[in-house]
Design a protein that fits this description.
Layout: H1 3-9, H2 15-36, H3 38-41, E1 46-49, H4 57-60, E2 63-65, E3 71-73, E4 77-80, E5 93-96, E6 101-104, H5 112-116, H6 125-151, H7 153-171, H8 177-204, H9 208-214, H10 217-235, H11 239-245, H12 248-253, H13 264-269, H14 273-286, H15 299-315, H16 326-349, H17 358-367, H18 369-383, H19 386-405, H20 411-426, H21 428-438, H22 444-468, H23 475-490, H24 506-514, H25 545-552, H26 565-574
Antiparallel strand pairs: 1-6, 2-3, 4-5
Length: about 575
């Protein structure tokens, strides 16, 4: 039997599905901490040059105007005292701080900024840490995928989890910034090694009926992780202990990582049939399934599955991502992911500029993400992805313009920042859905990896734009607003995928572009994805020619070679689908 049929025989929502979903959600919590812990680890406290040994603070450190036109001691300069002028009233020149800095740690506690003196000529280094983490996530995505495909999901997950804990704990013992930055980069690389398999296995152990709902739980837990992160940072204000506490969930998970199952789909794809049968029997027993068959996969079906997967893999290559019409999908989705990561991290990292308590600001802005994660689950199944995505990008750009007009630290600025983050976070689900629905099956993994790699450049660029904003006011938000506004228009270059099936070949994608629709709404009864509301009491499947032929083969009396698309629609009515169209699934 096919794998989806085997899953149904073993209870599609049993203990195995609970275990893989639990691991996926827990890993998403840790992922949120790795992505945005820099906000608290590298927080900049109030500081000024330390007094020179020859005099007091007021005698050795000049005064300057602060951000709010308040007089403060200089951040980066001290008086320079020639040996022959120590006891004269001559107006002295200044030089860079020679005796270190004094930090006010009452609010933020100890950070890498105060411990490694990352100020003045080293003030770009805290933002560099954020960019190194994002770069590490990009490198990890390139490495982890092939390793998991070659070695297996389970060993990749387990090995990466152990190494992640070792590196994470080592960071708390960093003796200088270089050691800290290198280890943080490696931590991000290894993190993808257990994040990617945990997310993939969720979908690989779910039947098509449950993938759209349960598969979207990890992003919700990502946001919940951010809410918890703000509370942890509030109570733990020493960056070493704070970073060590980030490892607690993964340390607890190590004794239980043996429960993480290997992917049966992957075992079938590499033709390891005996192991696939063994794991499937374990799944059936763990789920306490009734009437467990003696053997799930017969040799003929196994060989057929493996041959089909192999032929699909070889039908399109990486270079096809840059050939029409896939090129349009690659460029537009790449720009959408770039804009999403650029603006999302711009909003997330700019919480330092909001009025009020920074911990409360981070908590509230993270809380704003929850409805933005949940609403798309309901909205996208009714209105499609293109229109909501374009509107959200436009509103996010508008909020950025508001932040340019309003003064930083005001209530209006804070409101714009919170709603801007809401609109940009909303876009994650429709962009991910369009990515899954537009790349042909045989090149979907490569295409998803490419556009997300392009997107990572946005998250690398974001902290540096915020750093340059101190020298060139309004540069960061102006650029982000422009990119988000431009992406709102570029989104219309893509076809709406609501009511369509996923393309299998380049020709299928061309068919989607030829029949491109901008606005699509479902009304009446709720239909499964891949179908549309019937017209004149007859279902019509909006499907490319090759997929229509596959649907036609569902009836033994239908010869797919003699049918065209309209014939398939007529045959669907004969099969008793007056109110519902076919629901297509993939292995």
């Amino acid at each position: 039997m096919k794998f989806d049929e085997a899953l149904k025989r073993t209870k599609p929502l049993g203990r195995t599905q609970f275990i893989v979903t639990f691991f996926g959600c827990a890993v998403s919590v840790v992922s949120s901490w790795i992505n945005l812990s820099n906000v608290f680890i590298a927080e900049l406290s109030i500081y000024h040059c330390s007094a020179s040994p020859w005099g007091s603070l007021s005698e050795t450190i000049p005064l300057e105007l602060g951000d709010n036109n308040e007089t403060t001691y200089s951040h980066c300069e001290q008086f320079m005292i020639p040996q022959d002028q120590k006891n004269t009233s001559t107006e002295w020149e200044t030089e860079t701080c020679k005796n270190g800095w004094d930090y006010d740690t009452d609010l933020f506690g100890k950070s890498i900024v105060s411990e490694f003196d990352l100020v003045c000529d080293k003030s770009a280094l805290p933002d560099l840490d954020q960019s190194l983490v994002v770069a590490g996530l990009g490198v990890g995505a390139i490495i982890a995928g092939p390793i998991a495909d070659y070695w297996g999901r389970r060993p990749t997950f387990m090995t990466s989890l152990v190494i992640f804990n070792l590196i994470g704990l080592s960071i708390s013992f960093s003796i200088n910034y270089v050691m800290f930055a290198v280890l943080r980069f490696l931590l991000a690389v290894v993190h993808v090694g257990f994040w990617l398999p945990s997310v993939i296995v969720i979908f690989e152990y779910l039947t098509p009926k449950h993938r759209s709902n349960i598969g979207n739980w990890p992003p919700i837990f990502f946001t919940l992780g951010l809410i918890v992160l703000s509370a942890m940072a509030y109570f733990i204000r020493d960056w070493r202990w704070f970073h060590a506490s980030l490892m607690v969930p993964t340390l607890v998970a190590v004794p239980f990582m043996w429960l993480f199952p290997e992917s049966v789909r992957w075992l079938l794809s590499v033709q390891n049939y005996s192991k696939a049968e063994e794991v499937m029997q374990q799944v059936a027993r763990r789920n306490k399934a009734d009437d467990i068959p003696e053997k799930f996969f017969d040799d003929i079906k196994e060989q057929s599955i493996a041959d089909n997967l192999k032929s699909e893999t070889n039908s399109l290559g990486f270079l096809d991502l840059f050939k029409p019409p896939i090129l349009t999908v690659t460029l537009v989705l790449g720009s959408m992911w770039f804009s999403f990561f650029l603006v999302y991290f711009g909003f997330a990292l700019s919480t330092r500029s909001l009025a009020g308590d920074p911990y409360l600001n981070f908590f509230i802005s993270s809380l704003f993400e929850l409805p933005a994660r949940i609403i798309p689950l309901w909205l996208l199944s009714r209105s499609g992805s293109v229109i909501p995505c374009s509107i959200a990008f436009a509103l996010g750009s508008l909020m950025m313009v508001g932040m340019l007009i309003l003064e930083a630290g005001t209530i209006g600025f804070t409101v714009c920042a919170l709603f801007g983050r809401f609109f940009i976070t909303f876009n994650f689900s429709p962009i991910l859905l369009l990515t899954s629905d537009l790349f042909p099956t045989t090149i979907r993994n490569a295409g998803t990896g490419m556009v997300q790699l392009i997107g990572r450049f946005g998250s690398i660029l974001s902290p540096f734009l915020l750093y340059l904003d101190e020298r060139y006011p309004s540069l960061a938000f102006s650029f982000m607003a422009f990119v988000a506004g431009l992406t709102a228009f570029l989104t219309f270059l893509l076809p709406e995928t609501l009511g369509t099936v996923q393309p299998t070949t380049r020709e299928d994608l061309q068919e989607l572009f030829r029949n491109r629709r901008i606005i699509t709404f479902r009304n009446g009864c709720r239909l499964p994805r891949g179908t549309t509301k019937s017209r004149s009491n007859t279902s019509e499947v909006i499907a490319p020619s090759s997929i229509s032929r596959d649907i036609a083969t569902a009836n033994e009396n239908i010869d797919p070679e003699k049918l065209n698309n309209s014939d398939v629609s007529k045959q669907s009515a004969k099969l008793g689908t007056e109110n519902y169209a076919f629901e297509t699934t993939q292995l």
